[in-house]
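Q: For a teaching handout, I want to show students what a protein-ligand complex looks like in token form. Below are the inputs, and the small molecule is zinc ion. Please produce the holo structure.
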Amino acid sequence: MITGHMNSRLAILLRTILPAHRFYARKFAGLDLDDWARLPFTTKDDLLANQAEHPPYGELLTEPLENYTRLHQTSGTTGSPLRWLDTPASWEWMLGCWRTMYGMVGVTASDRLMLAFSFGPFLGFWTAFEAASRLGCLCLASGGLSTGARLKMLLDNRATVLLCTPTYALHLAECAREQGVAIRGVLRAIIVAGEPGGSIPATRARIEDAWQARVFDHTGMTEIGPLAIECSARPGGLHVLEDDYFAEVVDPVKGEPVSPGDIGELVLTNLGRLGSPLIRYRTGDFVRVDPSPCPCGSPWMRLEGGILGRTDDMIAVRGNNVYPSALENVIRRFPEIGEYRVTIDQTVSLTAVRVEFEASIDGLEERLAIAIRDALLFRAEVSRVPTGSLPRFEMKARRVVVKR
Ligand SMILES: [Zn+2]
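A: Here is the structure, written as tokens, with zinc ion included.
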């Protein structure tokens, strides 16, 4: 449902970027721009193909190239990286998104923020950092440091808020335990991003227990912008910044809106990144909107359970669709289990699911296999592997491997 207010904002957006934006001018040529639901979707493949055809930036810019001041790019884990440029005005809009999110989390000028990221070409940490420094926070960048050095930096500078991936929040806590350093109660809040763990109950419980700090989930995408944050009133979900985005949830096959409360693919239009906008962008993320009002009072769409998984890594196991986040939620309930990897083998006639894990004790295989069967209704082959043998991730952990 598009409200009258949103309708006019979308109309203004289209009038502002067309016809200068050649990609959308061609995509929407001859279409009735007022008939939003009939406008074609944009996919990442469309954007990559356009950049390949018109290197290096494609026809994806509204303004002359010299007006752009920032370049970021996607990870390219599922193909080539997408190059994304921003004008100063688009950058300001993204800092505004962060200002809103920091407000919802309760970050103020007296906070000291530690950003435990690499500061590579992804967008997220740069916008998070600059928005926090504008807010008046002391901001600590910790790219290129070892985990031990980051832990020391966090403690020495008395950081109050940590931003990192859920994996890394656990990894830092593990490092503190090994070094015998006390971290409980040091932080006030941990904003996690880059992986779905922040909204997975068992994962967030582990982080909150290790640090005795409240976890806030966040998500954003380099090509879209900072997008959604958990509110303080209701853990385990994400509010989409609906003042800055028009969000739709569609059936990934039919492309039609799903019923409220049903799982579908998140489709986004960013309303303020006018230099490099995306319209009806298929994020590839599965979400479920919680239609009940949120106790925080925000009218914004709330995604229950955060990002449930990617459309490209949903696992079909013997007639059931299984989300990697559901498997993670079962595995993370075992405090003795550290890193893990799930392999889905579809090369055999009955899809096989193999779970390898590192653990501090013996004899968990059978208990984990039973827990998976009880929760997800399939039997997995479960095995313990030596500690340190599985890959570690700084960003965008990919713990599910599909063999097709
Ligand atoms: Zn809320």
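A: Two things your students might notice: The first strand starts at residue 70 and ends at 73. The domain at 315-403 is CATH 3.30.300.30 (GMP Synthetase; Chain A, domain 3).
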